[in-house]
Amino acid sequence: MTKSNLKVQNIVATTSLGKPVSLTQLAKSQANTEYNPEQFPGLVLRIKEPKSAVLVFSSGNLVCTGTKSIAQVKEVISQVIKQIGKIGVKITQQPKITVQNIVASGSINLNLNLNILALQLENTEYEPEQFPGLVYKLDEPTATFLLFSNGKLVCTGTKNKQQLEDSMKQLNKNIREAIARSK
């Protein structure tokens, strides 16, 4: 099996600014926001470049989504800090960013018999009448894969590049073993 060509599609990261933020003030001062406190306690701040969305909570906690690299996450957070500065909230130290989830897509360049994999691998869900992909959960490293018969895949649940690569290696090994057992 050849090396996968994984491409990061989305990184979900969190941080805390360590200071409270007036969401009402932020919503009034920034056009790129959505704030409906009756429906959701956070404010959505849309960033054009790199294209992303940040949930801002009154506690100063942030959830950043839509970026494709850690460099982009840092860029987005610094833009948010600038925008929050406009309403008088000064953030002096660089907040610590924690990656919660990486979503990547790719292919293992192999046609897969999902029926066989569903039988041979543990922790799978496969209901082709409802969804054409097989859901496969890896325990070590922790990752969840969507596998399709054409070899394309989506991986979610990893928190860094190394975990992503390790989970792909484990997936490749498990698929090879499952195919060998089924023969």
Chain-wise SSE layout:
Layout: E1 7-16, H1 23-29, E2 33-34, E3 43-47, E4 52-56, E5 61-67, H2 70-85, E6 98-107, H3 114-120, E7 124-125, E8 134-138, E9 143-147, E10 152-158, H4 161-182
Antiparallel strand pairs: 1-5, 1-6, 2-3, 3-4, 4-5, 6-10, 7-8, 8-9, 9-10
What is the structure about, briefly put?
This protein is an alpha+beta fold and 183 residues long. 28% of the residues lie in helices and 32% in strands. The protein has 4 helices and 10 strands; from the N terminus they run βαββββαβαββββα.
CATH architecture of the largest domain: 2-Layer Sandwich
Order of helices and strands: EHEEEEHEHEEEEH
Nearest-angstrom radius of gyration?
20 Å
What proportion strand? 25-35%
Number of helices: 4
Neighbour order of strands in the largest sheet: 2-3-4-5-1-6-10-9-8-7
Structure description:
The protein has 183 residues and is α+β, with helices and mostly antiparallel strands. It has two domains: 11-100, TATA-Binding Protein (2-Layer Sandwich); 108-182, 2-Layer Sandwich (TATA-Binding Protein), CATH 3.30.310. It has four helices and ten strands; from the N terminus they run E-H-E-E-E-E-H-E-H-E-E-E-E-H. It has helices at residues 23-29, 70-85, 114-120, 161-182; strands spanning 7-16, 33-34, 43-47, 52-56, 61-67, 98-107, 124-125, 134-138, 143-147, 152-158. It has a ten-stranded antiparallel sheet, with helices on one face. Strand 9 and strand 10 (152-158) form a beta hairpin. The chain is elongated and about 65 Å long. The two termini are 17 Å apart.
How would you describe this structure in keywords?
ten-stranded antiparallel β-sheet; 183 residues; 32% strand; single chain; TATA-Binding Protein; 28% helix; 2 domains; alpha+beta
